[in-house]
Design goal:
The chain is α/β, with parallel strands linked by helices. It is built from 14 helices and eight strands.
C-alpha cells in the first residue's frame, strides 16, 4: 500500500505550516512555519495565552510595540519547533511605505535577536507592492531575508526575482476565488485551476532563468491544488489540509520540475512597467488590495484585544 500523501509530498517539496497554532506545528512537524495577522489573532485568542499576552501588552510602549512583541513571542516559540524559517509579517498598514517597512523589519530582527533567534532563521513578510518589493531589495542587501506575500500577478513575481528576494508566496486559492466569482459555471478543476497555473508559470520562469528565489505556493482551498503543485520548492499548508493529506493514501506524482522550465529571455521590470502590468491584470490588482485590507481587519482586531489587555 502506498504511503500517505503527506509523507510522499515531503519527499519532493518542503512542507510549511500555515498556522500560529503551536499544537498543530508539534503534530505535523513542518520544516518551516509562516504566520500573518489573521493567524496571530487566532493564536492570541487561545485561553492559555491570554495571561502572557496581557503581560506583554502592559509592558509595551504602545500598541505597535505590543503587536510586534506578540508576533516575535509566538514566532520565537515556533522557531524552537521547526528547523527552518519562521515568517513574520510587517504591518499591512505599511504596504505602500518603503522607509517605514524597512524600519519595522529591522526592529523585528532586533527583537528576535533578543529572544536568541538569529536573522538566518527569520523571513520578514512584506506585501508584494512596488514599495514593498523595493524595501525587500534593500533588506536582502543588509542580510535580512524576505518573504513577499499577497502575490497574485506575474509582474509581481518578475519584480520580486529582479529584487533578489529570498522567497515569494503566490496565493493559489484566492486566485481561484476571483475567477470563480467572474465565471461561476467554468470548469476550474485539476490543471484548469488558475491559481495552480499561476504558480507553475512562476516556478518555470524562475528555474529557467536561474533565479535563486524560492517559490512557496500558499492559500489552498483544497488538497487537489496542493497535489497539483507537488514538486514546488515549498508549499505552506493549513493544519486542516495537512491532516487530510496525512490521512489519505495513494500514489503521488511530481507535477513541477525544473526540466519543464522556460528559457526565453526574461524582462526586467521598471516601476512604470510593473504598474502598467498590474493595471492590466484586474485579478492581481483586486486581490492585492483586498488582501491588504483583510490583513488589516484582523490586525485591528488584534490591536483592540491587546488594548483591552493593556488596560487590564
Amino acid at each position: 500500500m502506498a504511503d500517505d500523501l503527506l509523507s510522499q509530498l515531503r519527499q519532493m517539496t518542503t512542507v510549511v505550516a500555515d498556522t500560529g497554532d503551536i499544537d498543530a506545528i508539534r503534530r505535523f512537524e513542518p520544516t518551516d512555519a509562516t504566520t500573518n495577522p489573521s493567524l496571530i489573532l487566532q493564536a492570541a485568542q487561545l485561553e492559555g495565552r491570554r495571561e502572557r499576552l496581557a503581560d506583554i501588552a502592559r509592558q509595551a510602549a504602545d500598541i505597535d510595540d505590543a503587536l510586534d512583541a506578540v508576533a516575535v513571542e509566538i514566532g520565537s516559540e515556533i522557531s524552537s519547533l521547526v528547523p527552518g524559517y519562521v515568517s513574520t509579517e510587517v504591518s499591512a498598514r505599511l504596504s505602500f511605505d518603503t522607509d517605514a517597512t524597512l524600519a519595522r523589519a529591522r526592529s523585528l530582527i532586533e527583537r528576535y535577536g533578543r529572544h536568541g533567534v538569529g536573522p538566518e532563521r527569520i523571513l520578514i513578510k512584506v506585501a508584494a507592492t512596488w514599495e514593498g518589493i523595493r524595501a525587500a531589495q534593500q533588506l536582502e542587501r543588509e542580510g535580512i531575508q524576505t518573504n513577499l506575500t499577497l502575490l497574485f500577478g506575474f509582474a509581481q513575481a518578475q519584480a520580486c526575482a529582479d529584487a533578489g528576494v529570498t522567497l515569494v508566496s503566490p496565493f493559489v486559492g484566492r486566485i481561484l476565488d476571483w475567477h470563480k466569482a467572474q465565471s461561476p459555471d467554468a470548469d476550474f478543476s485539476g490543471d484548469n485551476d488558475p491559481g495552480v497555473r499561476s504558480v507553475k508559470r512562476i516556478y518555470e520562469h524562475y528555474k529557467g532563468h536561474g533565479y535563486d528565489t524560492i517559490v512557496m505556493g500558499a492559500s489552498f482551498r483544497n488538497a487537489g491544488e496542493i497535489l497539483a503543485l507537488a514538486g514546488c520548492d515549498r508549499l505552506t499548508i493549513s493544519p486542516a489540509l495537512l491532516g487530510e493529506l496525512a490521512d489519505t493514501r495513494g500514489p503521488l506524482t511530481r507535477r513541477l520540475s525544473a526540466q519543464d522550465a522556460e528559457t526565453r529571455a526574461p524582462e526586467s521590470l521598471h516601476e512604470s512597467d510593473y504598474r502598467w502590468h498590474m493595471n492590466e491584470d484586474a485579478m492581481a490588482t483586486d486581490k492585492l488590495a483586498e488582501g491588504i485590507r483583510k490583513f488589516m481587519e484582523d490586525q485591528r482586531k488584534l490591536e483592540v484585544l491587546l488594548g483591552e489587555l493593556r488596560r487590564g
